[in-house]
Amino acid sequence: MKKKLLFLINDLSFFISHRLPIAEEALKIGFKVVICYGELGNANPNYIEKKGFQLMSIYMDRGGINFFKDIKTITDIWKKIKSESPDIIHLITIKPYLYGGIISRLLGIKCVVSSVSGLGTIFIKKNFRNIFLKNLLFPVFKFAFNHFNQKIIIQNQDDYNLLVNWGVLKPPKAILIKGSGVDLNKFTNLDEQIGLPVVTFAGRLLKDKGVNEFIGASYTLRQRGIKARFILAGEIDTKNPSSININDLQKIKKDNFVKILGFVKNIPDLYSKSHIICLPSYREGLPKSLIEAAAASRAIVTTNVPGCRDAIIPNQTGLLVPIKNSKKLADAIQYLIENPKKRIEMGKYGRKLAEKEFPIKKIVQIHLRVYKDLLN
Protein backbone atom coordinates (compact mmCIF):
# COMPACT_ATOMS: atom_id res chain seq x y z
CA MET A 1 0.00 0.00 0.00
CA LYS A 2 1.29 3.44 -0.95
CA LYS A 3 2.46 5.79 1.80
CA LYS A 4 0.52 9.05 1.85
CA LEU A 5 2.39 12.37 1.95
CA LEU A 6 0.32 15.46 2.68
CA PHE A 7 1.67 18.97 2.07
CA LEU A 8 -0.02 21.83 3.94
CA ILE A 9 0.78 25.34 2.68
CA ASN A 10 -0.83 28.76 2.76
CA ASP A 11 -0.47 29.57 -0.96
CA LEU A 12 -0.53 27.19 -3.93
CA SER A 13 1.59 29.46 -6.14
CA PHE A 14 4.33 29.45 -3.48
CA PHE A 15 4.16 25.65 -3.42
CA ILE A 16 4.64 25.50 -7.19
CA SER A 17 7.58 27.89 -7.16
CA HIS A 18 9.33 26.47 -4.08
CA ARG A 19 8.29 22.85 -3.39
CA LEU A 20 6.81 21.26 -6.52
CA PRO A 21 9.97 19.29 -7.53
CA ILE A 22 9.95 17.57 -4.11
CA ALA A 23 6.32 16.52 -4.56
CA GLU A 24 6.98 15.33 -8.13
CA GLU A 25 9.87 13.12 -7.04
CA ALA A 26 7.86 11.76 -4.10
CA LEU A 27 5.07 10.83 -6.52
CA LYS A 28 7.60 9.20 -8.84
CA ILE A 29 9.01 6.93 -6.11
CA GLY A 30 5.60 5.72 -5.01
CA PHE A 31 4.04 8.16 -2.54
CA LYS A 32 0.41 9.19 -2.84
CA VAL A 33 0.70 12.98 -2.65
CA VAL A 34 -2.00 15.31 -1.35
CA ILE A 35 -1.55 19.09 -1.51
CA CYS A 36 -3.67 21.06 0.93
CA TYR A 37 -3.54 24.82 0.29
CA GLY A 38 -5.12 28.05 1.46
CA GLU A 39 -4.98 30.65 -1.31
CA LEU A 40 -4.41 30.11 -5.03
CA GLY A 41 -2.14 33.07 -5.70
CA ASN A 42 -1.15 32.96 -9.38
CA ALA A 43 -1.51 29.18 -9.55
CA ASN A 44 -3.68 27.11 -11.88
CA PRO A 45 -5.07 24.09 -9.95
CA ASN A 46 -5.59 22.12 -13.18
CA TYR A 47 -1.84 22.28 -13.83
CA ILE A 48 -1.22 20.49 -10.53
CA GLU A 49 -4.02 17.94 -10.80
CA LYS A 50 -2.84 16.87 -14.28
CA LYS A 51 0.47 15.89 -12.71
CA GLY A 52 -1.31 13.30 -10.58
CA PHE A 53 -1.62 15.13 -7.27
CA GLN A 54 -4.74 15.28 -5.15
CA LEU A 55 -5.63 18.90 -4.38
CA MET A 56 -7.61 20.12 -1.38
CA SER A 57 -8.38 23.74 -0.55
CA ILE A 58 -8.77 24.91 3.04
CA TYR A 59 -9.91 28.16 4.56
CA MET A 60 -6.78 30.16 5.38
CA ASP A 61 -6.19 33.89 5.54
CA ARG A 62 -2.42 34.39 5.59
CA GLY A 63 -2.80 38.12 6.31
CA GLY A 64 -1.94 38.32 10.00
CA ILE A 65 -3.75 37.00 13.06
CA ASN A 66 -7.54 37.17 13.31
CA PHE A 67 -9.00 35.04 16.10
CA PHE A 68 -12.32 34.24 14.43
CA LYS A 69 -10.80 33.54 11.00
CA ASP A 70 -8.01 31.44 12.50
CA ILE A 71 -10.46 29.32 14.49
CA LYS A 72 -12.13 28.49 11.18
CA THR A 73 -8.70 27.70 9.67
CA ILE A 74 -7.76 25.42 12.59
CA THR A 75 -11.10 23.60 12.33
CA ASP A 76 -10.66 23.09 8.59
CA ILE A 77 -7.07 21.85 8.97
CA TRP A 78 -8.21 19.44 11.69
CA LYS A 79 -10.94 17.98 9.48
CA LYS A 80 -8.65 17.61 6.43
CA ILE A 81 -5.77 15.98 8.32
CA LYS A 82 -8.10 13.65 10.22
CA SER A 83 -9.93 12.55 7.06
CA GLU A 84 -6.72 12.01 5.06
CA SER A 85 -4.73 10.44 7.94
CA PRO A 86 -1.36 10.81 6.13
CA ASP A 87 1.70 8.73 6.96
CA ILE A 88 3.78 11.89 6.78
CA ILE A 89 2.79 15.54 6.73
CA HIS A 90 4.97 18.37 5.44
CA LEU A 91 3.99 21.77 6.86
CA ILE A 92 5.20 24.85 4.98
CA THR A 93 4.91 28.54 6.02
CA ILE A 94 3.97 29.84 9.44
CA LYS A 95 0.26 29.09 9.93
CA PRO A 96 0.55 25.57 8.50
CA TYR A 97 3.58 24.66 10.62
CA LEU A 98 2.08 26.14 13.78
CA TYR A 99 -1.56 25.07 13.49
CA GLY A 100 -0.72 21.94 11.51
CA GLY A 101 2.04 21.05 13.97
CA ILE A 102 -0.32 21.25 16.95
CA ILE A 103 -3.09 19.31 15.18
CA SER A 104 -0.66 16.62 13.97
CA ARG A 105 0.41 16.01 17.58
CA LEU A 106 -3.17 15.85 18.85
CA LEU A 107 -4.26 13.50 16.04
CA GLY A 108 -1.20 11.26 16.40
CA ILE A 109 0.17 11.69 12.86
CA LYS A 110 3.22 9.40 12.60
CA CYS A 111 5.73 11.72 10.91
CA VAL A 112 5.93 15.52 10.70
CA VAL A 113 8.21 17.81 8.69
CA SER A 114 7.99 21.55 9.40
CA SER A 115 9.64 23.99 6.98
CA VAL A 116 10.56 27.42 8.33
CA SER A 117 10.90 29.69 5.28
CA GLY A 118 12.01 32.79 7.16
CA LEU A 119 10.55 34.11 10.39
CA GLY A 120 8.53 37.07 9.15
CA THR A 121 7.66 40.56 10.31
CA ILE A 122 7.33 39.88 14.05
CA PHE A 123 11.01 38.89 14.18
CA ILE A 124 12.13 41.94 12.18
CA LYS A 125 10.56 44.91 13.95
CA LYS A 126 11.11 45.17 17.71
CA ASN A 127 8.04 47.19 18.63
CA PHE A 128 5.54 46.59 21.44
CA ARG A 129 3.06 44.78 19.18
CA ASN A 130 5.63 42.32 17.87
CA ILE A 131 7.14 41.67 21.31
CA PHE A 132 3.62 40.96 22.60
CA LEU A 133 2.93 38.61 19.66
CA LYS A 134 6.22 36.77 20.20
CA ASN A 135 5.34 36.15 23.85
CA LEU A 136 1.87 35.04 22.82
CA LEU A 137 3.26 32.67 20.18
CA PHE A 138 6.00 31.14 22.35
CA PRO A 139 3.87 28.24 23.69
CA VAL A 140 2.36 27.74 20.21
CA PHE A 141 5.81 27.35 18.62
CA LYS A 142 6.98 25.14 21.48
CA PHE A 143 4.04 22.74 21.17
CA ALA A 144 4.08 22.72 17.34
CA PHE A 145 7.81 21.94 17.25
CA ASN A 146 7.74 19.05 19.74
CA HIS A 147 6.10 16.16 17.93
CA PHE A 148 7.80 12.88 18.95
CA ASN A 149 8.84 12.08 15.33
CA GLN A 150 9.54 15.39 13.60
CA LYS A 151 12.17 17.32 11.68
CA ILE A 152 12.24 21.12 11.52
CA ILE A 153 13.84 22.41 8.31
CA ILE A 154 15.65 25.72 8.81
CA GLN A 155 17.16 27.66 5.90
CA ASN A 156 19.90 29.65 7.65
CA GLN A 157 22.04 29.51 10.79
CA ASP A 158 20.63 32.72 12.29
CA ASP A 159 17.07 31.36 12.31
CA TYR A 160 18.34 28.13 13.85
CA ASN A 161 20.15 30.04 16.61
CA LEU A 162 17.14 32.27 17.26
CA LEU A 163 14.69 29.38 17.62
CA VAL A 164 17.06 27.32 19.79
CA ASN A 165 17.92 30.26 22.07
CA TRP A 166 14.23 31.22 22.28
CA GLY A 167 13.62 27.76 23.69
CA VAL A 168 11.15 26.43 21.11
CA LEU A 169 13.48 24.22 19.05
CA LYS A 170 15.51 21.24 20.26
CA PRO A 171 18.73 20.95 18.20
CA PRO A 172 18.31 17.20 17.36
CA LYS A 173 15.02 18.01 15.60
CA ALA A 174 16.58 20.64 13.32
CA ILE A 175 18.06 20.18 9.87
CA LEU A 176 19.66 23.01 7.90
CA ILE A 177 18.73 23.00 4.19
CA LYS A 178 19.87 26.00 2.18
CA GLY A 179 16.76 27.15 0.38
CA SER A 180 14.43 25.39 -2.01
CA GLY A 181 16.95 24.80 -4.80
CA VAL A 182 17.10 25.89 -8.42
CA ASP A 183 16.85 24.06 -11.74
CA LEU A 184 20.19 24.98 -13.29
CA ASN A 185 19.07 23.68 -16.69
CA LYS A 186 16.62 26.57 -16.99
CA PHE A 187 19.41 29.13 -16.69
CA THR A 188 21.40 28.88 -19.91
CA ASN A 189 21.81 32.47 -21.17
CA LEU A 190 24.69 33.27 -18.86
CA ASP A 191 26.42 36.04 -20.83
CA GLU A 192 25.36 39.62 -20.17
CA GLN A 193 23.50 41.43 -22.93
CA ILE A 194 25.16 44.50 -24.39
CA GLY A 195 23.51 47.80 -23.54
CA LEU A 196 22.42 49.97 -20.64
CA PRO A 197 22.93 48.15 -17.30
CA VAL A 198 19.70 46.73 -15.91
CA VAL A 199 19.26 46.43 -12.13
CA THR A 200 16.43 44.08 -11.18
CA PHE A 201 14.44 43.45 -8.00
CA ALA A 202 12.29 40.29 -8.19
CA GLY A 203 9.84 39.56 -5.41
CA ARG A 204 6.70 40.75 -3.68
CA LEU A 205 6.61 44.53 -3.33
CA LEU A 206 7.07 44.62 0.43
CA LYS A 207 8.73 47.31 2.53
CA ASP A 208 10.38 44.48 4.49
CA LYS A 209 12.01 43.32 1.25
CA GLY A 210 13.58 46.75 0.81
CA VAL A 211 11.44 48.09 -2.04
CA ASN A 212 11.69 51.66 -0.73
CA GLU A 213 15.47 51.42 -0.47
CA PHE A 214 15.67 50.04 -4.00
CA ILE A 215 13.63 52.98 -5.30
CA GLY A 216 15.68 55.40 -3.19
CA ALA A 217 18.90 54.00 -4.69
CA SER A 218 17.52 54.56 -8.20
CA TYR A 219 16.80 58.21 -7.33
CA THR A 220 20.30 58.67 -5.91
CA LEU A 221 22.01 57.18 -8.96
CA ARG A 222 19.89 59.30 -11.31
CA GLN A 223 21.02 62.40 -9.38
CA ARG A 224 24.64 61.26 -9.71
CA GLY A 225 24.24 60.95 -13.46
CA ILE A 226 24.65 57.17 -13.49
CA LYS A 227 22.82 55.66 -16.43
CA ALA A 228 20.98 52.42 -15.73
CA ARG A 229 17.49 50.90 -15.87
CA PHE A 230 15.80 49.84 -12.65
CA ILE A 231 13.13 47.13 -12.74
CA LEU A 232 10.65 45.93 -10.14
CA ALA A 233 9.34 42.47 -11.02
CA GLY A 234 6.57 41.68 -8.57
CA GLU A 235 3.16 42.57 -7.24
CA ILE A 236 1.78 44.22 -4.13
CA ASP A 237 0.52 41.79 -1.49
CA THR A 238 -2.58 43.14 0.22
CA LYS A 239 -2.47 40.31 2.78
CA ASN A 240 0.97 41.34 4.04
CA PRO A 241 1.15 44.30 6.47
CA SER A 242 4.50 45.27 4.98
CA SER A 243 3.21 45.64 1.40
CA ILE A 244 3.32 48.96 -0.41
CA ASN A 245 -0.17 50.13 -1.43
CA ILE A 246 -1.83 51.20 -4.69
CA ASN A 247 -1.01 54.87 -4.06
CA ASP A 248 2.68 53.98 -3.59
CA LEU A 249 2.58 52.01 -6.82
CA GLN A 250 1.03 54.89 -8.75
CA LYS A 251 3.64 57.30 -7.39
CA ILE A 252 6.47 55.00 -8.51
CA LYS A 253 4.96 54.80 -11.98
CA LYS A 254 4.50 58.57 -12.12
CA ASP A 255 8.08 59.30 -11.01
CA ASN A 256 9.31 56.98 -13.78
CA PHE A 257 12.63 56.15 -12.10
CA VAL A 258 11.75 52.47 -11.89
CA LYS A 259 9.85 50.29 -14.36
CA ILE A 260 7.22 48.02 -12.80
CA LEU A 261 6.66 44.73 -14.61
CA GLY A 262 4.19 43.11 -12.21
CA PHE A 263 4.34 39.36 -11.63
CA VAL A 264 6.94 37.70 -13.89
CA LYS A 265 6.72 33.96 -14.43
CA ASN A 266 9.83 33.51 -16.58
CA ILE A 267 12.65 34.44 -14.19
CA PRO A 268 15.45 32.91 -16.33
CA ASP A 269 14.46 35.23 -19.20
CA LEU A 270 14.18 38.24 -16.88
CA TYR A 271 17.59 37.62 -15.35
CA SER A 272 19.23 36.99 -18.73
CA LYS A 273 18.26 40.57 -19.64
CA SER A 274 19.56 41.94 -16.32
CA HIS A 275 23.08 42.83 -15.23
CA ILE A 276 22.67 43.15 -11.44
CA ILE A 277 20.13 41.48 -9.14
CA CYS A 278 19.24 43.43 -6.03
CA LEU A 279 17.35 42.37 -2.88
CA PRO A 280 17.75 44.84 0.03
CA SER A 281 15.54 42.78 2.36
CA TYR A 282 15.30 43.15 6.13
CA ARG A 283 15.33 39.38 6.81
CA GLU A 284 14.81 36.19 4.79
CA GLY A 285 14.92 32.41 5.09
CA LEU A 286 17.09 31.88 2.02
CA PRO A 287 15.68 33.91 -0.87
CA LYS A 288 14.99 32.01 -4.07
CA SER A 289 15.47 35.22 -6.08
CA LEU A 290 19.13 35.29 -5.04
CA ILE A 291 19.92 31.62 -5.67
CA GLU A 292 18.30 32.05 -9.08
CA ALA A 293 20.51 35.12 -9.61
CA ALA A 294 23.55 32.97 -8.87
CA ALA A 295 22.29 30.30 -11.29
CA ALA A 296 21.84 33.03 -13.92
CA SER A 297 25.48 34.10 -13.43
CA ARG A 298 24.51 37.57 -12.23
CA ALA A 299 26.23 39.71 -9.60
CA ILE A 300 24.12 40.38 -6.51
CA VAL A 301 23.65 43.33 -4.19
CA THR A 302 21.86 42.44 -0.99
CA THR A 303 21.72 43.27 2.70
CA ASN A 304 23.84 41.94 5.54
CA VAL A 305 20.92 40.17 7.24
CA PRO A 306 19.95 36.53 7.93
CA GLY A 307 19.10 34.66 4.76
CA CYS A 308 20.43 37.23 2.32
CA ARG A 309 24.05 36.96 3.43
CA ASP A 310 23.70 33.15 3.37
CA ALA A 311 22.83 33.24 -0.35
CA ILE A 312 26.12 34.82 -1.46
CA ILE A 313 29.86 34.74 -0.85
CA PRO A 314 30.55 38.38 0.11
CA ASN A 315 32.79 40.24 -2.35
CA GLN A 316 33.02 37.13 -4.50
CA THR A 317 29.49 36.49 -5.81
CA GLY A 318 27.95 39.72 -4.59
CA LEU A 319 28.09 42.72 -2.29
CA LEU A 320 26.54 43.20 1.14
CA VAL A 321 25.17 46.55 2.28
CA PRO A 322 23.67 47.74 5.58
CA ILE A 323 19.94 47.35 6.12
CA LYS A 324 17.62 50.31 5.39
CA ASN A 325 20.37 52.38 3.74
CA SER A 326 19.54 53.46 0.19
CA LYS A 327 22.77 55.51 -0.13
CA LYS A 328 25.03 52.51 0.62
CA LEU A 329 22.84 50.45 -1.69
CA ALA A 330 23.33 53.03 -4.43
CA ASP A 331 27.11 53.00 -3.82
CA ALA A 332 27.27 49.20 -4.26
CA ILE A 333 25.15 49.23 -7.41
CA GLN A 334 27.23 52.09 -8.84
CA TYR A 335 30.43 50.15 -8.17
CA LEU A 336 29.14 47.17 -10.16
CA ILE A 337 27.87 49.40 -12.98
CA GLU A 338 31.25 51.13 -13.27
CA ASN A 339 33.26 47.89 -12.98
CA PRO A 340 31.76 45.49 -15.55
CA LYS A 341 34.71 43.07 -15.45
CA LYS A 342 34.33 42.66 -11.70
CA ARG A 343 30.56 42.32 -12.09
CA ILE A 344 30.91 39.56 -14.70
CA GLU A 345 33.52 37.80 -12.57
CA MET A 346 31.14 37.84 -9.59
CA GLY A 347 28.41 36.38 -11.75
CA LYS A 348 30.65 33.51 -12.84
CA TYR A 349 31.58 32.73 -9.23
CA GLY A 350 27.86 32.87 -8.42
CA ARG A 351 27.12 30.21 -11.03
CA LYS A 352 29.77 27.95 -9.50
CA LEU A 353 28.22 28.50 -6.07
CA ALA A 354 24.77 27.60 -7.43
CA GLU A 355 26.14 24.43 -9.05
CA LYS A 356 27.71 23.38 -5.76
CA GLU A 357 25.11 24.42 -3.16
CA PHE A 358 21.71 24.94 -4.76
CA PRO A 359 20.95 22.37 -7.50
CA ILE A 360 17.34 21.29 -7.24
CA LYS A 361 18.20 17.57 -7.41
CA LYS A 362 20.40 17.89 -4.32
CA ILE A 363 17.68 19.71 -2.34
CA VAL A 364 15.00 17.19 -3.42
CA GLN A 365 17.12 14.21 -2.38
CA ILE A 366 17.78 15.71 1.05
CA HIS A 367 14.03 16.13 1.59
CA LEU A 368 13.30 12.55 0.48
CA ARG A 369 15.98 11.29 2.85
CA VAL A 370 14.27 13.20 5.69
CA TYR A 371 10.94 11.53 4.80
CA LYS A 372 12.57 8.09 4.69
CA ASP A 373 14.32 8.52 8.04
CA LEU A 374 11.11 9.60 9.76
CA LEU A 375 9.09 6.73 8.26
CA ASN A 376 11.74 4.24 9.44
Overall description:
By secondary structure, this protein is an alpha/beta fold. It has 2 domains: 4-181 and 359-375, Glycogen Phosphorylase B (Rossmann fold, 3-Layer(aba) Sandwich); 184-357, Glycogen Phosphorylase B (Rossmann fold, 3-Layer(aba) Sandwich). The chain is built from 14 helices and 13 strands. The strands form 2 sheets. It has a 7-stranded parallel β-sheet, sandwiched between helices. A 6-stranded parallel β-sheet has the order 10-9-8-11-12-13, with helices on both faces. It is globular, with a radius of gyration of 21 Å. The two termini are 16 Å apart. The relative contact order is 0.12. The mean pLDDT is 93.
Quick summary:
With 376 residues, this protein is of the alpha/beta class.
Helix content: 40-55%
For the record, the CATH architecture of the largest domain stands as 3-Layer(aba) Sandwich
Number of domains: 2
The largest sheet, given as strand count, sense and whether it forms a barrel, is: 7 strands, parallel
- CATH homology group of the largest domain: Glycogen Phosphorylase B
**What would you call the shape?**
globular
Number of strands: 13
Radius of gyration: 21 Å
Q: Which CATH C-level class of the largest domain is it?
A: Alpha Beta
Count of DSSP H/I helices: 14
β-strand amount: 15-25%
Order of helices and strands: EHHEHEHEHEHEHEEHEHEHEHEEHHH
Low-confidence stretches: none
Average of the residue pLDDT scores: 93
CATH structural fold name of the largest domain: Rossmann fold
Intertermini distance = 16 Å
How does the helix and strand content classify structurally? alpha/beta
Give the strand order, joined by hyphens, for the main sheet. 3-2-1-4-5-6-7
